[in-house]
Design goal:
single chain; mainly alpha
Length: about 800
């Protein structure tokens, strides 16, 4: 069908929160619309959903595009009342010439003023783009003096020409770097960041004598870029905007994206540029002086200046020292390791040097990137590929989640929940269930094999080994995120990343390392470590079903079945009682829905089904081990067909369905996903995987498989810090996200390899020396190499 474009006249006629908005979101024509339709035209579901999501943005746009109809005034008011205690002769300044100021103001391109009307002249930029010159609001007299000087240059064409003729273009660069009214507001482009680098390159050094009746221009400053985010003040009623000596501005001017209109939501984060003599506090006070009377305020004013010193704090120094010592130990261990090989003195490896040699980069690199063309029969080789491809899926999905706040086409995110193919992204959370499945499988498989080999399980070492395996890399990654990683950021959003990621890492890094962060109020530190918490919590209670399985009794299977049924019943009850939506990527829901879905996403009882299916798979593999298990071809074909059908139903089944189907899908989907994986692993390991097993078990995937845990830890910090390093908002589509994912995996590998060599492998090596495990043989060593959960 033909879509009906919205004309500017339509938008100008729309008042904030008025009924025409409702008619647009419902697919009907607004009043007075002249657009006609053919008899068969109806809106598609996609367009309907898009307009619903754009409703809030449209409200703000309505206020932005509404122009006042006041009559043109013949002259302008003086818009710089003389501040007290300043040695500047305001009365003799040629700034009240209305015609000259108006002409200069019209040259400031499409500012975020909420109106194209510039009858208030240059005064309209004060308080939102430049700090106020009111000494009651801004007490920084040097800042006020420089702001006045900037406005004088803009208001005097002769001064402007004189400065430009010397090749100094800061009077043009400064307003040009401001964030303007962006295109595509209705599509979610509410991030007019401006141009930070254009601002920070500004150098103004003006000392211009005028004449006896005009004060001289004396300014020396650099450009200071600031990103401003504005929020609402609760329970505060709007008041009339006034200055200390009357009205601050002409009443027909809407400043700062019509933010002075109390009915317009403050959805914009805009960039501005001001003299470096002004501080973030000066600009924040100016903005608040204008917006607080209408129930709004500056939430954050984050400023940057070129070559601004970024000093090391105590935490940075401590981490750098630890990193230096660790690097020195690794270098020394590598030299000794190579010397032992060169002089063939292998007996030295068994002495005290064994504690040092676990840090050898040579040996650890060789073991990490070793490719075994033929592995031990007890090694589940198909897990190599399953782990690698699942990690790619995880990083791909996280790319959409972690960068939603720096995206300029937010409405496009709604489309991720529409259409069949987009469900691959929407349901990327099942990649987590795949890792939980493999974790349950390997834990149970190792325990059951260890019973056969050592005639018993050391349950104390069961917990010690798991903690040592998972916690040290988390601590190291959190320490890097809380300290030195922040030095790679210098973009407009870098301060926001420090507030929302770096500071929580400094305060709550311990919660991730002891696996309780999913029960604490977020944010903690590493956002992905809710998974390691859930994994460890399920691991902690797994002996309740593993211990009975060691008896090989019928009761143990009945008990495992009852626990599995319970794992399905709990999410079903949660969804039914609280009317929740089926689990999916949580970045597509509002704050209330996100909190309500915590029980379906980040809690162990919500993910237990996948983990238990891994235990069922381990039990089956041990049962058929060394018994020459055979399956008829019909069973093999039927198994693959059913497994594929189940996986596709789970992956592409999250569509608009009835509440009953939604409840069943939410409760059974993770169990069904585990059933599908059960067949894949069982068939591949028993020789019925065909081409699928050839792909998943390919030897070239072994090194990548060993790096997945490090990749899992470092890729999200890389994605988050990237949002603080970029200078412009991002445009989201599937192609750009695929390209970005390749970059994240590559850079993640460059960071993850040192993490593996410096922390992961040395810690496991020390564990083997300090806690030698009885019965540790070939099978256990092979299985240990496979463990990445």
């Amino acid at each position: 069908m033909k879509s009906r474009p919205l004309s500017m006249s339509h938008l100008n006629n729309v008042q904030p929160f008025a009924t025409p908005l409702d008619t647009i979101t419902q697919g009907r024509d607004p009043p007075n619309s002249t657009v006609s339709h053919s008899s068969g035209d109806t809106r598609t579901g996609r367009m309907e959903g898009r307009w619903r999501v754009a409703a809030v943005v449209l409200v703000a746009a309505a206020g932005l595009l509404t122009v006042t109809q006041a009559e043109e005034k013949s002259s302008l008011k003086s818009f710089w009342p003389p501040p007290k205690d300043l040695n500047i002769d305001f009365k003799n300044m040629d700034l009240n010439s209305g015609e000259r100021a108006a002409k200069a103001a019209r040259k400031l391109h499409r500012l975020l003023l909420g109106s194209e009307d510039t009858r208030a002249g240059l005064n309209s930029v004060l308080g939102m783009y430049l700090p106020s010159i009111n000494p009651i609001v801004v007490r920084n007299l040097e800042c006020i003096s420089d702001v006045i000087g900037v406005l004088r240059v803009w208001a005097d064409q002769g001064l402007m020409n004189k400065i430009l003729s010397r090749g100094s273009y800061w009077p043009i660069f400064l307003p040009d770097s401001w964030g303007k009214v962006p295109d595509g507001i209705l599509y979610g482009n509410v991030l007019p960041w401006g141009m930070q680098e254009e601002c920070t390159m500004i150098r103004a050094n003006e000392h211009i004598p005028i004449n006896e009746t005009k004060p001289a221009i004396n300014m020396e400053f650099r450009g200071r870029y600031c990103l401003v985010s504005v929020g609402m003040i609760k329970n505060e009623k709007p008041e009339t905007l006034r200055t200390w000596e009357g009205e601050f501005m002409s009443p027909d001017v809407q400043v700062g994206v019509a933010m002075t209109d109390p009915n317009v939501l403050p959805i914009f984060n805009y960039g501005t540029c001001m003299p470096s003599t002004c501080s973030a506090e000066d600009l924040e006070a100016s903005i608040n002086s204008i917006l607080k009377p209408v129930g709004k305020m500056a939430k954050h004013v984050d400023c940057h200046i070129e070559d601004e010193p970024n000093y090391l704090n105590t935490g940075d120094i401590v981490f750098v020292v630890i990193l230096s010592v660790l690097g020195s130990v690794m270098l020394l261990a590598t030299v000794i390791d190579l010397s032992i090989n060169y002089y063939d003195t292998q007996e030295l490896r068994k002495g005290p040097l064994s504690f040092l040699l676990v840090f050898s980069m040579y040996t650890n690199m060789k073991n990490t990137f070793a490719i075994k063309l033929k592995e031990h029969p007890d090694v589940i080789s198909c897990l190599h590929g399953l782990r690698v491809f699942t990690m790619v899926w995880v990083v791909w999905g996280h790319g959409y989640m972690m960068q939603a706040n720096v995206t300029k086409n937010l409405v496009h995110y709604k489309e991720l929940s529409q259409g069949v193919l987009n469900q691959i992204i929407m349901n990327a959370s099942y990649s987590v269930d795949t890792f939980l499945f493999m974790s349950g499988l390997l834990v149970a498989y190792t325990v059951l094999l260890e019973k056969d080999k050592a005639r018993g399980v050391n349950w104390i070492m069961y917990y010690i080994h798991r903690f040592i395996r998972l916690s040290p890399p988390i601590v190291f990654t959190a320490a890097a995120s809380a300290t030195v990683f922040r030095f790679i950021m210098n973009g407009p959003n870098s301060h926001a990343v420090e507030r929302n990621f770096v500071e929580p890492c400094r305060e709550k890094w311990w919660a991730d390392s002891i696996f309780i962060n999913n029960f604490l109020e977020h944010p903690t530190c590493l956002p992905q470590c809710w998974y390691t918490a859930v994994d460890f919590q399920l691991f902690a209670v797994a002996p309740l079903v593993l211990a009975p399985l060691l008896t090989n009794s019928f009761f143990s299977l009945v008990w495992l079945f009852l626990v599995t049924v319970t794992s399905v019943a709990v999410p079903i009850i949660n969804i039914a009682v609280y009317n929740l939506v089926p689990p999916g990527l949580p970045f597509l829901v509002n704050e209330e829905e996100r909190k309500a879905n915590v029980d379906l996403y980040m809690m162990p009882w919500a993910r237990a089904s996948s983990y238990l299916m891994g235990i069922w798979t381990a039990w089956l593999l041990v049962r058929v081990r060394n018994k020459g298990f055979k399956m008829p071809p019909v069973v093999v074909v039927l198994g693959w067909v059913v497994s594929a059908a189940i996986a596709l139903a789970v992956l592409f089944g999250r569509q608009k369905v009835s509440q009953v189907v939604s409840i069943l899908y939410g409760g059974l989907s993770r169990l069904a996903w585990g059933v599908s994986l059960l067949w894949v692993v069982f068939a591949c390991h028993t020789g019925y995987g065909g081409i699928m097993n050839s792909i998943l078990s390919h030897p070239s995937l072994q090194p990548l498989s060993r790096l997945t845990y490090s990749l899992f830890l470092v890729t999200i910090p890389i994605q988050i810090f990237y949002t603080g390093a970029i200078y412009m908002p991002l445009y989201v589509n599937h192609l750009t996200k695929i390209i970005e994912t390749c970059g994240y995996l590559f850079i993640g590998g460059l960071v993850g390899i040192p993490l593996t060599l410096a922390v992961e492998r040395p810690i496991l090596g020390l564990e083997k020396i300090i806690f030698p495990r009885k019965g540790r043989g070939i099978i256990e060593k092979k299985v240990e190499e496979k463990k990445q959960e």
